[in-house]
Amino acid sequence: MTRSFYSSAIVFAAIYTVLILFKSILYLILGIQASNLPSIGGWFTFEFLTWLVWSIILLKYYHFYKHTFVFRALILSIVVSVFHFFSFLQLMQTKEILNYHIITIIGSLGAGILYAISLLSSGTGKNRWLRMAGIVLLIEGIIMTSAIIWSINSTSFMLSGTLGRIEQWVGLAGTLVPIAFIFHFLEEKKISTDKPNAGQESWVGTINFAAVIIAMGGLYFISILVLDSMDISKNARRADTHLKKIAEPFEAGIYVNNHQDTLRYRLLKPLNYDSTRQYPLVICLHGSSGSGMDNARQVVASLPVPLLSKPENRTKYPAFLFVPQCPVGATWGGIPHFPAIDSLVFEAIASLQQKLPFDTNRYYVAGNSLGGYGAWHFISTRPTLFAAAIPISGAGNTSVAKNIVDIPVWAFHGANDRNVPVIGSRVMIEAMKKAGGNPRYTEYSDKAHNIWNEVSDTPGLLQWLFAQRKK
């Protein structure tokens, strides 16, 4: 290979490294919000095309030096990655993970691991920089594959956040791969000649042209993404104002116990509230998007709230709506290895019960996602407190199903749910039935995690809920 080829390849690798580094830093700063940037789809397409050109440059190098195993492994990785790319574009549009998405992800990771092994086991493994690239790729592939399989086999949606963080750091470590190739090409350049070669000169011209296009495209997308990120910050401030406006009808409250543990909550009193009359209490548990300390966003993130707070339903089914807010990183309970605040919620309810006319025979709990776990956990650990429960897209502990056989339960789940696999609801319902219970269960065969519209349109749901009383 000529020196000019190596020079062009080094420049291209440097540009590619900058692009990977920028994306990794962007995701570390914005987290999951980066996926909501308007231009992120265009960026991923641009990044994939850049990787494709980079892979073709490497194929030329491997072919010239007759590194057959590495050459074939990289071709396989390219083919599988193309399928994964188009699957990922669809995922970005639908926001729902389907079975074939998982297959393309695992296939792409598997092909990447094979390519990493080829770098270590063939002639390329004798070079320290290519060996380092292979080691980094292998570690990345093993970590991501293990994390994906771990999340698939778990019913805990909390792992999705962990998986995202792993992906962010693995992506940042991925910048070491093109850097290793840069150092390798620098060493190769020192011992190479620059004899005229028509075939290689055309390659050099093509690489240089691609480098210019990629550099210009990179500057464009980086500037667009930076502007979009600034817009997200502005929109977040507007959203906070909007959230506070939505939460206004709900009285803001803070409960602090003797240990200074603090629970923020919102409380909506019954329409035409009469302090001489007793009312049911509905505990509305939000999903993970409602976690925080602002004491507002949980009202929107608790999916039962919009249905229960409609004027016509407040007229027909007057009740107190209690909407606590879970801190980030904590849970309502029922998810192993994560801190739970269920006891604090019960303490706050007991405190409010001394001041407000709650009908203690009609305590209900309803929750979605994180709140679905909470609904199962609340009735399992305090079965004598509740008259009914509506767990949505959640999971529970089957070993304590015998405790809740007398509690009316109506659970809901989407069969294609990848955030919280449907098996979580199925096994709980089956365990209740085996223990002698008679729970209701509605499963949507064509739906994934977002099923609230279907749940809220369920005929007779509120009529069923408010008809329940403790036995």
Protein topology:
Blueprint: H1 3-30, H2 40-64, H3 68-94, H4 99-121, H5 128-152, H6 158-173, H7 176-191, H8 198-247, E1 251-256, E2 262-268, E3 279-285, H9 297-301, H10 304-308, H11 311-316, E4 320-325, H12 342-353, E5 358-368, H13 370-381, E6 388-392, E7 410-414, H14 423-434, E8 440-444, H15 452-456, H16 461-466
Parallel strand pairs: 3-4, 3-5, 5-6, 7-8
Antiparallel strand pairs: 1-2, 2-4
Helix pairs in contact: 1-2, 1-6, 1-7, 1-8, 2-3, 2-8, 3-4, 4-5, 5-6, 5-7
Note down, in words, how this protein is organized.
With 471 residues, this protein is of the alpha/beta class. It is built from 16 helices and 8 strands. It has 2 domains: 3-239, no CATH class; 248-466, Rossmann fold (3-Layer(aba) Sandwich), CATH 3.40.50.1820. It has helices spanning 3-30, 40-64, 68-94, 99-121, 128-152, 158-173, 176-191, 198-247, 297-301, 304-308, 311-316, 342-353, 370-381, 423-434, 452-456, 461-466, and strands spanning 251-256, 262-268, 279-285, 320-325, 358-368, 388-392, 410-414, 440-444. Strand 5 (358-368), helix 13 and strand 6 form a beta-alpha-beta unit. Helix 1 (3-30) runs parallel beside helix 8 (198-247), helix 4 packs antiparallel against helix 5 (128-152) and helix 5 packs antiparallel against helix 7. The longest helix has 50 residues, at 198-247. The chain is elongated and about 100 Å long. The chain starts with a helix and ends in a 5-residue tail after the last helix.
